[in-house]
Write a structure and sequence with these properties.
Layout: H1 2-23, E1 33-42, E2 51-61, E3 69-71, E4 77-81, E5 86-90, E6 104-107, E7 109-111, E8 113-114, E9 120-121, E10 126-132, E11 153-154, E12 162-165, E13 169-177, E14 190-197, E15 203-212, E16 222-229, E17 235-243, E18 253-260, E19 262-264, E20 269-273, E21 279-283, E22 293-296, E23 301-307, E24 310-320, E25 325-330, E26 335-340, E27 343-346, E28 353-355, E29 359-361, E30 369-372, E31 381-383, E32 386-388, H2 394-427
Parallel strand pairs: 13-21, 13-22
Antiparallel strand pairs: 1-2, 3-32, 4-7, 4-31, 5-6, 5-10, 8-9, 10-11, 10-26, 12-24, 13-23, 14-15, 15-16, 16-17, 17-18, 19-20, 20-21, 24-25, 25-26, 27-30, 28-29
Length: 430
């Protein structure tokens, strides 16, 4: 009788796990629950005797198993390609994180969205954790303890804020009309305005004035170039440029000398200091190379003006790379790293305790954690625009459901049979 009752209890537990698995078939990141049956053995008092023990059940989850990863349209849908976990925290006050272990969780995937404060959080209330980085993507505190959660903070896309980048490089290529340096030319200067951005993202203008040097006879191939900064009206560049007039290098730069500013013949850059104090390199080419600024008969033709820097920009979105870097994308075309997502690892993933929101908690059985950089050591890489599916195989669950129902019915039959035998025993007294 007791063995049959224990059998009913064990199969009822298995039925419960199957029901949970089927219910979570479409739950992202869900780890399938399984039942292990173990025999209960009772020693007999008499040699050769037998005492029915029964069966007991234990629930386990294969947390180290990973579901199929699917692409998504949300850049902050995150999964791990390989071993490892995403650190998260279950807190309603993420800006004042509790250092207690009970507040932190590990997840294999998550669909994160910014809340009203800009914190990335799942619908179940799990906040994404990361490490603050500088503009190069390096941790601001590189010596953080990797076996604790202490250095982590909630990823907040508002931390990217606004972005402005000063101009440091302007690439210039164009043609100066050779006929303008002949003795019969008018000597009229040619002006070219070029935009740049200061350190506050304000648009300013460098006005390049090319003044031809008119010789008494023949052709000089010589130009005086001045650069005026609109920010303060000052002349920040004054250069004497000479072009080759004959030979294989005709039309290319021959030499550049600077009165104000500087010229580097190895890089072809005119270096000038603008009103804000930062230097701008204006590249015009190296001598005899025939690139950058040239002089041929024809029109004044600025062919290429490329610059770096950008004006004020608002953050549009964030994207997560396979290196774990969370990049803020701005509407001015700039990209800036703001966080690095570490990938957590534990010695025994199956020893983690299951928590709400498809997250897991450290236990004594799981061992301690270590925070690796994405793709380093034994862990996989972070993936944005992706979500991990459940590990449930619905066909397998339905098969197990049929088997469990048959087993439950068989154990119930044992009890009814024992009941009939006891009834017969009772009838012997009549």
């Amino acid at each position: 009788m007791n063995a049959g009752v224990l059998g009913l209890q064990a199969n009822a537990a298995r039925l419960a796990t199957i029901s949970e698995n089927i219910a979570n078939n479409n739950t992202n990141g869900y780890k399938r629950a399984e039942i292990d049956f173990s025999t209960i053995v009772l020693s007999a008092d008499q040699p050769g005797g037998f005492t029915a023990g029964g069966v007991t059940s234990n629930v386990r989850r294969s947390i180290d198993q990973r579901g199929l990863v699917e692409a998504s349209s949300n850049s902050t849908d995150i999964s791990i390609n390989g071993r490892g976990f995403i650190p998260v925290v279950q807190s309603q006050t993420p800006d004042a994180l509790d250092a207690a272990r009970d507040n932190f969780r590990l997840a294999t995937t998550g669909s994160f969205r910014p809340d009203v404060d800009g914190n990335l959080v799942t619908s179940s209330g799990l906040f994404l954790l990361g490490i603050k980085v500088d503009q190069t993507g390096a941790p601001i505190n590189p010596a953080f303890a990797r076996n604790t959660f202490d250095a982590l903070e909630v990823v907040n896309i508002a931390a990217g804020g606004f972005k402005a980048s000063p101009t440091t490089l302007i690439e210039f290529a164009g043609n100066l009309p050779a006929q303008d340096t002949e003795s019969t030319a008018s000597g009229d200067p040619l002006a070219l305005p070029v935009e740049y951005f200061d350190e506050l993202g304000k648009s300013e203008t460098l006005t390049l004035t090319f003044s031809p040097v008119i010789p008494a006879t023949g052709q000089s191939g010589n130009w005086m170039v001045t650069v005026i900064d609109s920010a303060n009206g000052a002349t920040i560049g004054d250069f004497d440029i000479q072009f080759n007039l004959t030979g294989a290098n005709a039309g290319s730069l021959a030499s550049v000398s600077a009165t104000t500013g500087a010229y580097d013949a190895t890089t072809g850059a005119l270096t000038m200091t603008v009103a804000g104090g930062n230097d701008i390199d204006l590249t015009i080419g190296v001598p005899n190379a025939g690139d950058g600024l040239v002089q041929f008969s024809g029109e004044f033709a600025p062919l290429r003006i490329n610059k770096d820097g950008a004006g004020f920009g608002n953050i549009l979105r964030v994207e997560i790379g396979d290196d774990g870097i969370v990049n803020a994308i701005f509407d001015n075309g700039q990209t800036s790293p703001i966080y690095r997502l570490p990938v957590a690892d534990v010695i025994n993933p199956n020893g983690l305790r299951v928590s709400e929101g498809n997250a897991f908690q450290l236990t004594r059985d799981s061992g301690g954690l270590f925070l690796f950089d994405s793709g380093q050591g034994p862990v996989g890489t972070t993936q944005g625009f992706s979500i991990e599916n459940s590990t449930v195989d619905i066909a397998q669950e339905l098969t197990d459901l049929i088997q469990t129902q048959r087993s439950y019915s068989s154990n119930a039959r044992i009890i009814t049979t024992v009941d009939e035998m006891l009834q017969e025993t009772t009838n012997l007294k009549r």
